[in-house]
């Protein structure tokens, strides 16, 4: 278990650094990143909160972040929005943090042990702690607070157009503050509950038990991870919880990560999150996103790249345009229909599907090169024709043809356009060994005159090519797909720690925008999972499982990051956990389905999950009993 101590030396260094050009290698430490610094938690109905676990990030200021002690912020309640409420613990930084299979966040440090719980379908946020030293907790708010007794405070939370009643309750003593309440934590077990629009919970033990029952029931409704080891199955369930908590429970949007840097809804990342949840059998969560996306404000006939996670409003200033979401919407909606056979859903989505398909067809047929227009695409650093965008649109158009045919639309124009796009991808991207990652318009002078055609632009190879090849299985000649993957592996596999680099010369996380890597070319967990998924759908279960295991080794207690350090292999903490990584993990495990008769692993996996949940539950019950003995009797 990796530890962290913030001493006076580091504080002095940070003060000096603020006046200098960032030098990540000089101040970076690979031992600081094995626990998450941010996690989202949700009651799965209308309430969400961002938990700063108190685990600090080296060079946080350089990365546009700030280190905070254990705290709960961005307390969101639909439809009101983020409430002017926060909980902050007055203590040292945490040394470790993780998400349990009971969907609780645990933080540990010199102060002791703290667990944050939001029982599903309840209005409560519960903090249970076992403290080794006095430890105060402050609730700050905009509004008024008054004590009913020494253990109960009534809160009047005042927003721009609402006033909400809440209650703060604890077995510890409460003291009034000018703008909030102070909870005087003492050594030993104690609890604090925040009730939104409700009175105090009558029994903390019952809340812990209720959380266990409802989380267990939700996990049990998941499609089984057939044919994988117990460790990989455990990670499958944990990844599902990450996806569930990273979804806005009221709107249906997904956060790309709990990290404030990525606390936005990328249309692309969110589509994969919804696809993973529906593949796992959680149709309501996926439905909430697809219906939101169908109604979301568009950038012309396409979608904006990202949206506000809490309001759904588009970010009109960031990375526009990106057109991969067109194909992903078509893939996701048709897959949802295939899983559920819900004709009403398809009828509802048909208009949005038709608008998307019409834009694709008209763009392709009006282009002299018969491609989807240039965009910033998946890595968002250059405008070009990207294989990622073109290929995902091609896959999406085939799905749209089937969906719109079922809905009664004429798809002749779409069929013609998809055929032209397929030919153009072969003409402008395939080089005989691999697909160029991007091409840009170039002027060629021929005997017939001036001709503008797409020409490849360096870097020529990207690991992003793998996923469209896997999603469009059957659209590509087998030799093209396998050859491309071979070229990517030879050129982009990290020699030091394993995993796939995005592209050669990638400086992101090193000296371009983020600075938490010890060197350039960090391997990405996400792109490594692209390869694992490709292996899974092509029957290479051994290769897929090895890569899945690699992701666990480089995770934060099972929480999958965006990327890892190229020299030390630790997770890069500024953007971890990454929602899309969890989605790809779930999709890969489900692609590894095997005949149930060969499923000795299945029985073992389910047994282990049940046992793990039971152990966690027993620990929580014991903790709750200790807390219960300290509760103030209800008057």
How would you describe this protein?
The chain is of the alpha+beta class and 635 residues long. Helices cover 38% and strands 21% of the residues. Strands 1, 2, 3, 4, 5, 10, 14 and 15 form an 8-stranded antiparallel sheet that branches. An 8-stranded antiparallel sheet has the order 6-7-8-9-16-13-12-11, covered by helices on one side. A 3-stranded antiparallel sheet has the order 21-22-23. Helix 8 (343-366) crosses helix 10. The longest helix has 31 residues, at 600-630.
List keywords for this structure.
alpha+beta; 21% strand; disordered C terminus; 38% helix; eight-stranded antiparallel sheet; disordered N terminus; single chain; 16 helices; 25 strands; 635 residues
Rough shape? Answer: globular
Largest sheet: 8 strands, antiparallel
Helix content: 25-40%
Overall SS class = alpha+beta
Please tell me the overall pLDDT. 89
Which blocks of ≥5 consecutive residues have pLDDT under 50? 1-29, 594-610, 619-635
Strand coverage percent: 15-25%
